[in-house]
Each structure stands twice: as C-alpha cells, then as structure tokens.
Design brief:
By secondary structure, this protein is α/β, with parallel strands linked by helices. Helix content is about 30%, strand content about 10%. Helix 3 packs across helix 4.
Amino acid sequence: MMLNAGGAGLDAASGAGRARPWHTIMPSVLGELTLVRDQTGLRGLYFPQHWYRPDRSEFGPRMDGGFGAASRQLREYLAGARQHFGLPLAPAGDQFQRTVWDLIMQVPYGDTVTYGELAARLGGEVTAQQVGAAVGRNPLCILVPCHRVVGRNGKLTGYAGGIGRKRYLLELEREQASRSLGLPFQDTLIPGPYGQEESADEHGRPAQNQSPRDLTQTWEKASTGRGK
C-alpha cells in the first residue's frame, strides 16, 4: 500500500469478492457528491454528470453511517482548512491504474504534474495517453487528486467532474498554498486554453476572473438551480 503525506492510502483490494457497498449523498459547493464505501474503505466519490459513473445499483443502499470522517474532511478541504486526507481508500482498479493513482497521491497540495511526467516516472514504453486513460478512471476524485494532473504547459485537459470543477480545485489549492507560505495570491486562473471562459455555463462552469471565494457563490447558485 502506498501512503500519501496525510497518511491515507490505497487498499490492495482489486474489486473481486469484495464486501457489499453502501453510499451517502453529501451536499457541497461543487454539487452533490456521492460517496461509496464498504467495510474496507471508500470506493468512490462521484460528481453529478460524472464521467464513467457506475450504475446506481453498484452503490448499494443509501446509509449515512460510516461517512462521518469523510464528510467532515471534505468540508474542511473545500473550505480551504485542510490540505491532506486521513481516510482509508479502497478503489477497484487493475494494477496499472492503481500504480498511476498511487503516483497521483504523491503530488503535493497546490502543485501539478503532467501526464507525460507521470509516464516518464513509470518508465518503459508507457505513454501519456495510457496515463490519461488511467487518470480518467479514477473513482475517488479529490481524495485521489487527479485534478492535479494537467496537460503539457499546464493545459487544463478533461476531468471526470468537468473542467470547471478541476479549475476550481486547482485555484482553491493554489490560494491556500500561497497563504500558508505567506505569499500574496493573485486572483487569476491557471494559464491554459480555458482562460477565455467568460461566465458560468448551464453546468455551472465558473468564470475566468473569479477567485475560489467568488466561485463558491457561483457553484452554490448553480447547485440550487439544478435542484429545482
């Protein structure tokens, strides 16, 4: 099991013969988060309209018990009050996927890595495209911080929860990391081809000139609108 800086890691379970899961739904600034776990640990964290979202039947019954620590730590993280998670994680994946996810967990808070850099760390003939496929299948967004994986030259490429959420998470971390170092934070988004976004779209994608504090209001309005 690989450990990240906060003490949480990926359990060695592959998914075969696993205990039956259960789930809860947690409201957040990024929309409702579906958390799935079993007796081993957390198996999934999914956004609304999540890429590769499993069928709801795979989440098991809805039961709120067992999610207290995860809900609290996620709230703290999204409020900028937590930089590391201390939760048991048990995502199902093949060996290559899990190796990529373990590498992602080593990327520091507020930092980024490219698909090509991860491929180079794996060595052999692994390509950035293969890494990207494994990143896209990460079932534990935020907790296994695949939002920190970017394209060449910092380009914001696809994200299972949508580019807007990826941008939000990166800017949140960038702001809090700057504060922890006593450095001024510039309310500008990370450079990339998505810097021309002008306003939140129908999915709540944030505008280019908003800081994480402003984006919170954008997501709250978007989430409220979706719930009506």
